[in-house]
Amino acid sequence: MKQRSIDKNLGGQVRSCIATGIAMSPISMIRFVIGPEGDVVPDIYGKLPGRGIWVSAKSAALEKAVKKKLFYRSAKKPVLIRKNLVSNVENILARRLINLISLARKAGQAVTGFEKVKGLLETDRAKVLIQANDGSKREKVRLRPPGDTSTKIDCMTSRELGLAFGRERVIHAAITAGGLYKEISMESLRLAGIRENNGNTGAKKGKEDV
């Protein structure tokens, strides 16, 4: 069967993480395939051909899969694991989230700037609050997410948010109701999981490629 988009067509299925053994929805995992040269390739979009190898979107799970050589075991053959695999996954996820927020901005579903975000949060149109993790804590606490903690995203840097809005840096943003806020929320969970052990401040290596 042809591999399809993860977030739209695989949400009702489950896959087993090779690191934890836990079965979970693919939307909270990273799919990998073995490339033509025998290397482990992250398939963030879930569209590359080949048998999928699934790992939970958590840095600990991914690091365990690399350290314990679980990709070898799952592929049942020798594979090449590049040293920057974890940071590569992080950067790809960051690019994807930046692109989704940029699409929301172009569709009129995203705003930035403290006053605009504050105004939107006072309406029922706001669905997600996004705040840069390197912004002023004193300033950020002045804004509350539109719902519970799941409606707040704080796994991006101000530079990354800036890229989404065509600016150098952005601290506050909000996403409105529309066709993108759910996908933005789901992708932010994967990025946050990969960044959970590095201070949640963004990739240290390859950051300029974002």
Give a verbal description of the structure.
- The protein is an alpha+beta fold and about 210 residues long.
- The chain folds into 2 domains: about 5-80, 2-Layer Sandwich (Hypothetical Cytosolic Protein, Chain: A); about 90-210, Ribosomal protein L30/S12 (60s Ribosomal Protein L30, Chain: A).
- The chain contains 8 helices and 9 strands.
- The protein has helices spanning about 5-10, 60-65, 70-75, 85-105, 115-120, 135-140, 160-165, 180-195; strands at about 15, 25, 30-35, 40, 55, 110, 125-130, 150-155, 170-175.
- A 4-stranded mixed β-sheet has the order 6-9-7-8, with helices on both faces. Strands 4-3-5 form a 3-stranded antiparallel β-sheet. The chain has a two-stranded antiparallel ribbon with strand order 1-2.
- β7 (about 125-130), α6 and β8 form a beta-alpha-beta unit.
- The longest helix has 22 residues, at about 85-105.
- The radius of gyration is 18 Å and the shape is elongated.
- The two termini are about 30 Å apart.
- Residues about 1-10 and about 205-210 have low confidence and may be disordered.
Any key phrases for this structure?
alpha+beta, about 210 residues, Hypothetical Cytosolic Protein, Chain: A, disordered N terminus, 4-stranded mixed β-sheet, 60s Ribosomal Protein L30, Chain: A, elongated, 3-stranded antiparallel β-sheet, disordered C terminus
Provide a concise account of the structure shown.
It contains eight helices and nine strands. It is α+β, with helices and mostly antiparallel strands and 210 residues long.
